Amino acid sequence: MPKNGLFPSAPAPRPRVGISACLLGEAVRYDGGHRHQPALVARLRAAVDLQAWCPEAGAGLGVPRPPVQLVGDPRRPRALGVDDPRLDVTDALRDWLARHLAAMGALSGFVLKRNSPSCGVRDVPVFTAPGGPRHAGGSGLLVLALLARYPALPLADEAELADATTLDDFLEQVRRYHAARPINV
Ligand code: SF4
């Protein structure tokens, strides 16, 4: 026991941040590839713990798999096959997300793959109908689920974080979110 009877307080756990698995180099994209961002991943790992997420692989859509695109109301789009719009993976993705949303509550931020119909933060193409014109742009199904349940969660995509100032700002937002959590798990 220490002389003063006081034990040093346990170090605060580092913030945990979700990240699209393909940005970590995991070969989970529809074409069997990845979009590894080694410099960004190294910067993030210096400040936070990363947790990989791939909704499409997690939902059992397979690797490789047919590409999908967002169609319909940008606030609640459906994810339909690009080549065959009869392929509708919306419910599979939403079911997987609903089952994993609680685990996302342990996160203090999320780094996402730009333009993905699942992971894109903003400006993801959303079409009025298969083969129809596109709306101005929307968010992927993972991001819509995150925003609905954790509206203040810091989110950014890999293209935004290529800018050093934006990355610093994002990490500061993550630290503040983490510090404000009622229980740091
Ligand atoms: S963008 Fe998202 S859904 Fe697509 S491969 Fe990467 S992690 Fe998976």
Widest sheet, order of strands: 2-1-5-7
Q: In DSSP terms, counting alpha (H) and pi (I) runs of 4 or more, how many helices?
A: 5
Largest sheet: 4 strands, parallel
**Which series of helices and strands comes N to C?**
EHEHEEHEEHEH
- Unreliably modeled segments: 1-5
Shape: globular
Terminal residue distance: 27 Å
Strand content: 5-15%
The bound ligands are: iron/sulfur cluster
Kindly name the structural category.
alpha/beta
**How much helicity do the residues have?**
25-40%
As a whole number of angstroms, the C-alpha radius of gyration is 18 Å
Query: What is the strand tally?
Result: 7
Overall mean pLDDT: 92
Describe the protein's architecture and organization.
This protein is of the alpha/beta class and 185 residues long. It has a domain at 67-179. Helices cover 29% and strands 14% of the residues. It contains five helices and seven strands; from the N terminus they run E-H-E-H-E-E-H-E-E-H-E-H. It has helices at residues 38-45, 55-58, 90-104, 141-149, 164-180, and strands spanning 16-20, 49-53, 68-71, 78-81, 110-112, 126-127, 155-157. Strands 2-1-5-7 form a four-stranded parallel β-sheet. Strand 1, helix 1 and strand 2 form a beta-alpha-beta unit. The longest helix is centred in the last third of the chain and has 17 residues, at 164-180. The chain is globular, with a radius of gyration of 18 Å. The two termini are 27 Å apart. Bound molecules: iron/sulfur cluster (SF4). Iron/sulfur cluster (SF4) binds at residues 20-22, 28-29, 54-57, 113, 116, 118-119.
